[in-house]
Amino acid sequence: MLTPLTASVTGFSAMSRHGVSTVWSMIAAERLESVSIGKRRLVLIEPYLKSLGLDPPAYPITVAPAHFPELSGLSTSTTWDLIRSGRLTTVRVGRRHMVIVESYRALIEELRALPRQDARRNKMVPALGSGNPRGPPPPARANRRPPPAPNEAPMQSKEFPPSPIRLISQGGDQ
Q1: Using CA atoms, how far apart are residues 22 and 14, in angstroms rounded to an integer?
Q2: CA angle 122, 124, 127 (to 5 degrees)
Q3: What's the predicted TM-score (pTM) here?
Q4: What share of the chain is helix, strand, coil (3-state, %, to 5)?
Q5: In whole angstroms, what is the distance from residue 39 CA to residue 69 CA?
Q6: 89-112 residue pLDDT tens
Q7: Contact residues for 100 (Cβ-Cβ < 8 A; gap 6+)
Q8: Kind and range of the H or E run holding 147
Q9: What DSSP letter does each residue of 78-115 carry, written as one string?
Q10: C-alpha to C-alpha distance for 50 and 91, rounded to whole angstroms
């Protein structure tokens, strides 16, 4: 079993036996280092192990894309998207692609150098450290029809001709 370089918040929660909300609190308090790739927040494992006084394990030089999610916490499709975009470097061994692990480390360092991104999807949740417990108030709902002007009469309902179905069932016009 490979010790991952990064893990999703849920994956880190399962590995560390902390609850998911505790992991998010640790990220907010900057007790855990994390990066965002797309909409996914990944926790960096090596700094966490070092904070516990543990040495990180040795990692392989290359990993097959099918096994890369075990190392990174990313999905296989995201792995292939990163390979296609050139953000992960691969080498070919015969017909097989192998991801160079050092290219993933370089990607992580590149993302760590960027300002922190907000990985939340719901804008109602306050930004970290904003001091606003509930976020901005929701926008007022616009009425579908404006109220009638004071000098206008309210709309009258339209009268429709009688339904032919009703005429037949009542025995009319035969």
Answers
A1: 12
A2: 90
A3: 0.63
A4: 35, 15, 55
A5: 16
A6: 999 999 999 999 999 999 999 988
A7: 61, 62, 88, 89, 90, 91
A8: none
A9: HHHHHHHHTSS-EEEETTEEEEEHHHHHHHHHHHHHSP
A10: 30
